[in-house]
Description:
It is an enzyme of class 5 (isomerase). By secondary structure, this protein is α/β, with parallel strands linked by helices. The protein is built from 16 helices and six strands.
Amino acid sequence: MDSPGQASRKRSQSRGYESSYKKKKDKTPLCEACDDKVLSGKRLCLACLKAAAGHAEPDPDVLSYIRQAVSEGLRQSERAKKRCRSFSPEEYADLNSDEYAPPHKCSSPGPCAVALSCFLHCHIIFQEVSPLSSMSKYKLVMLRHGEGAWNIENRFCSWVDQKLSADGLKEAEMCGKHLKSLGFEFDVVFTSILSRSIQTAWLVLQELGQEWVPIRSSWRLNERHYGALIGLNRAELALNHGEEQVKIWRRSYDVAPPPIDETHPYYQVIHTDRRYSFCDTQKEKLPKSESLKHVLERLLPYWNDVIAPEIKKGKNILISAHGNSTRALLKHLEGISDTDIINISLPTGVPVLLELDEHLHPIKPHVFLGDQEAIQAAIKKVEDQGKVKPSDN
Ligand SMILES: O=C(O)[C@@H](COP(=O)(O)O)OP(=O)(O)O
């Protein structure tokens, strides 16, 4: 007797992928990759889900289904995530999720294996089903600069032009070495106009032996303007305003901190800085405080008009920017929801790889390159910056 996987393989092979994919549009309760019964409210039967996750030998038809579902799922991320959350505990148990614990912090409220049905947040499907990688047309590497002097002091640095710390210099060099070991070659590097992002780009290119690669800098890739919070210590703010408020200021999508005004100790330093005289926006119109939404709004024209066309020409791009400008771009490209973006923090000096199809839609979730355990620890450290220090209690 055929196993469920074999049965589904035979059925989908005899029928062809096209017809099974069309079923999705008819909203039939059958598996979208074969004719088997689906798990309640799911798009695939258990056999196909397992095959997709690498539990069983992947079926070419299932793979080709997943390829399309991935790009559609990413475009319709809100809908896909709702499905993900409706996975029942029995279904989850059946998928033997322990074995497939995610290598990253998944924002799904349940165990990450639930994401098997939404093709969005879980790396498993994408990492284990290797043929998917052949869909990648462009590889975009993004980077939060190496540690800056004020990162160590736990102060909001934002538009204050701090240089890299000694560790930050090492992080940038290590990042370059790592990218070299992976064989990356860049054609253009984009940075903000803040020194820490430019210095990081220099060091990365130096380690790669690609110093000749042009660097293009724009204020539109600058870190978020943190308004009146600039220069303040996050842990002290958490003590005075509560950790929740600090998290809202740092990670919410559409809440901007109070604006900076002329009485602020760093107002003159920032707003009379010569570099802002040559932006594509009048100096007076530059922000005095920004939410992540504002960052995305000022970054998008640069992405659409300058960066994306370079990628489409086939150039390999590195973006050496900041925690929040990178988060904004990731949110846009991956269709991350306003609520899920709250749970994403980026460590310093760690390259983030995003593989894109010809329309610049990601074909799988972003991946942090490097030692996953160390990266998770670094992310936690960034998150903890907004908490009260035990000794301050
Ligand atoms: O402005 C800053 O201090 C940090 C971000 O701070 P958080 O959003 O992590 O609090 O930006 P970056 O170091 O990436 O330039």
